[in-house]
Structure formats: C-alpha cells, structure tokens
Amino acid sequence: DDTDKGGFPHFMLKEIHEQPTVIRTLIERYIDKSQYCVKPLPLSFDPNTIERMAFVACGTAYHAGLLGKYWMESLANLPVDVDIASEYRYRDLIQPKQGVFVAFSQSGETADTLAALRRAKSENQHIVSVVNVESSSMARESTDRLPTCAGAEIGVASTKAFIAQCVVALCLAIYVGRQRGTMDAATEHDIVTALLALPNQIENSIHHIEPIQQIAYAMAPANDVLFLGRGRHYPIALEAALKLKEISYIHAEGYAAGEMKHGAIALIDGHVPVVCLCPSDNLLEKSLSNMQEVMARKAQVVLVAEESVCQSNKTAHHIIIPSVHPVIAPILSVVPMQLLAYYTALALGKDVDQPRNLAKSVTVE
Ligand code: G6P
C-alpha cells in the first residue's frame, strides 16, 4: 500500500527502498528488453525538425531536467535550455519556431511549472510532460505525456520520483538520439544493458548503510556541507545538497567542481565536510584534482567513487559506488546521497517526512 510505511520508520526511507521497483516498472513501460532499445515514444512531433528543447521545473525535478540536458545534448545532439519555472514564466524568451517544452513534475500541479507550461503552449511550443500524477493539470494540458510511474510519494523530500524522472529523461534522450541518427545502435544497446542491471545494483547498495550512517553522524554537527560534481554529476551534487538542507536544515551547497575555486573554496576549513562525487568517467582526474585542492585546505572529504579509486585516495571517509556505465552512473550515485541526507537528519532528530516550512506540492505562487 502506497499510503502506509510498510514497516519502515519513515516514508522517505520506504520510498528510497522502492526505487529498484520503480525502475523495473519503467523498464517494462519504456524498454524493449529483447532488442535492448527504448520502445517508440508517443511523441506528436518529429525529433528531426526540432531546433531546441526547454526543460522546465522546480526543486528536485529541476535537477532531473538538468541531468536530462547532459543526456539530450550528448546522445541526441540537440540543444536544451534548462529553466527554473518561476524564471521561465516571466522572462523575455526567444522561442524557437520548432521548440519542445518539457515540464518535469512529480505532482503535475506546481503553480510555477504549470504557468510556464501554459505560456509555452500559448507560444506554440510542443508540450511534453514528465509527470508522476497522471490525472494532474500538467498531464491533462500536455500534448504528449511520459509518465514516471513512481506511485504515490509521501515524503516531502523527493526520492523515487526523482529517480523516475531521470530514467524517463534518459529514455527520451536515447529515443530522440535514435530518431535523429546521432546515436548508434551499439551505444543504445550498452546503455540499455546498464539500465537493466540498475535495479539490482541499487538494491545491493541500499543494504550497505553502515558507512553512510557513520558519515551521517560525523556530518551532523556541521554548519556547512559542500557537494562537488562535474558533468552528469553536477546535477547530482545539487540534488544531494538540496536533500540534505531540506531535511537536516544544515546549510549545503552543490557546486560544479571546477567552479568551486570561484567561491565555495572560501568556506572550507577543517570543519566543513566536502562530498566529492568522483565517478570513473572521462572527468575523473579533474574531479580528483579538485578533491586534492579541498583536502589541502583541511576539508573533511567524503569521496564517492568506485572501490579502486577509494583505495588509491586516502580521504577521511568514502562511499563506494559500483562500477557502472558512465552514462547511467548518476542514477546510481544519487541513492547514497539520499541515504546520507536521511541519516544525517535522523541523527539530528529532525522530522524527516515533514520538514519545517516545506510543502509536498507548491500550488500557489
Ligand atoms: C516542492 C517539493 C519538492 C519538489 C518541488 C517540485 O518544493 O517539496 O520535493 O521537488 O516542490 O514539485 P513537483 O511536484 O513539481 O515535482
């Protein structure tokens, strides 16, 4: 039952544990498992005639949109503007003649995202919604719908809905890339193979919570926490910081690792934990070098990386992530970040499911 805690102490923890099931549901819906490809998506436009896309959202859903941009631009060679809905709705926009507006939203009712969608519609953009609540206003007012099928999400801090938005954004990028001829079948095969393995990998990693609990206890007294990530892990750094601040009330910032020396580095001393997301991709060396820079300033580093990387870099703490296709890696590495926020909030005795001042769905401006 979606509305009871199913034996978990909090909805948030239950929803974190539901993520493998959510991904399996999305695989059934969006993946052709015999052909190792994304099933044709019900889109009312031809991806070959599209000039640009706009991914628009609020909060956690915005981070899914930002990650979607990295995928869409690399797999489909299509430029994407990612916007916070409250900015998009009032800004002077230059709308492309053939543009696609994609709303990302769990509830489908967030006032700013809905207003942005209505504006885009009035300006002749194709409207796609990546929403969880299929009967929502956004779903009803869109031409094309890509449901995220995550089931009811009760915890105010979004977890399973985020992962679902990411999986759908990836499927959209793969499909559009295939249609536009910018991604070969072998690449699609490799990414889909990795996606099929993801539910089991998340299931295994969710049960290794002890190191994360220890880090959470060490992190709980902090006033500031930084999360650094590059490329596809920049949106994950932002999401990790948002999760932590939402439920623990610790000031947290996500930073593009390369941008850290333009500001956030001024915060660093021996009391500031810095979580360095260092997946084994083409930017690993750059990410590790940023980590060395913060270590030189005595930061308490939490290295999030594959086992071999953790072994060859001695840091205060580490979280091991399984070896996985680099395109998929962000979907996997967000899970320990959710657990880290959860256990830190718990260590501080905060109300994990109902954090102060926040609402599950912001239906007024
Ligand atoms: C609120 C919630 C967040 C959510 C955001 C956008 O701030 O607390 O968890 O990410 O709204 O909501 P939506 O329903 O549009 O995804």
From TrEMBL:
It catalyses: D-fructose 6-phosphate + L-glutamine = D-glucosamine 6-phosphate + L-glutamate. The active site is at K360. Homodimer. It comes from Ostreibacterium oceani. GO terms for biological process: amino sugar biosynthetic process; carbohydrate metabolic process; fructose 6-phosphate metabolic process; protein N-linked glycosylation; UDP-N-acetylglucosamine metabolic process. GO terms for cellular component: cytosol. The keyword Thylakoid does not apply. One of its GO terms (molecular function) is glutamine-fructose-6-phosphate transaminase (isomerizing) activity. It comes from the Bacteria. The keyword Transferase applies. The chain holds residues 245 to 609 of 609 of the full protein. It is an enzyme of class 2 (transferase). Its EC number is 2.6.1.16. Keywords: Aminotransferase, Cytoplasm, Glutamine amidotransferase, Repeat, Transferase. This is Glutamine--fructose-6-phosphate aminotransferase [isomerizing]. Catalyzes the first step in hexosamine metabolism, converting fructose-6P into glucosamine-6P using glutamine as a nitrogen source. Its main location: cytoplasm. It is found in: Cytoplasm. Residues 41-182, 215-355 form the SIS domain.
